[in-house]
Amino acid sequence: MSWNARALDVLAAGEPTPLVDFPVRAPGIRLLLKDESVHPTGSLRHRHARALFRRAVLDGLVGPGTTVVEATGGNAAVAQAWFARRLGLPYIVVMPGEHSRARARPVEELGGECRFVTPPPAIYDAAREIEGHFLDQFGRAAEHDLAAELFGQVRPDWVVTGASTGATSATLGGWIRAHGRSCRVAVADPENSAYFPGWTLDVPDYATGMPSRIEGIGRPRMEPGFRPDLVDLVIPVPDAAGVAAARHIREVTGLPVGGSSGTALWAALELIDRMRARGESGTVVSLIGDAAERHLATCHDDAWAAERGLDVAQHEEKLRRLVRSAGG
pTM for the complete prediction? Predict the structure, then answer.
């Protein structure tokens, strides 16, 4: 078997991730959480990393011994390092900010190399200067298999996700339109992010210049991978509300999810509340982007929230009202 054939075998789709019923008692409305945290690297980024590597192999951009380079951090870097290791490829990630042993460790444990660059926007140019193939998750299209998998499990009326590169909402929206489905896509957007104002104002190069406080979603600019034409609704979510909803997911499911999953849940509950008010029925799916013990020291920790001025208690009360109003 050739290296390419073996690589594509490694990059084949895994088992479908499960759907979890979430107990909102809206008459005629069902809320499901698609748990992407069960992937080997624990997040939705696993699916996107697989798609990027697969596209690069099919296009002849990655082969035996190719150094793979990316400019990112967090779950995306871990997922990419995992695939690079399985393919036997060197992996270098350029991360924003000062050197952090805690941030580098998960990548280095998978055999990857971390380089830190300041100011943060300089990571892209720094990555392009490294000899090898730049995956470029923000600029390079690579549709993953979430949509086909999801619609093989359920027939939702709405799918709610956060946006970072924009690939997930674009993949969902593109698949839905190509297959003539009536389902709609909503994007949950945290504070400081450019997606809600850019989508609302129809300004494709909108930028806020401010980083998101919610790990994994929200961008200071409209990224090339985000397709406003494939998104039906963008819902702004206060950061404290996303944190409150993350805690609610943990309370119900036991999963220590991050703020991105909480942000998506908050948007899904607001959407359900609107559906209830209009007398609509249907199925809403919200994505669990990741779940990890490290989140217990962040969005599930009162001291962490207080240090960032996040009034979680206020939003916990509103969250209970949203669930009650959605429950009728």
Answer: 0.91
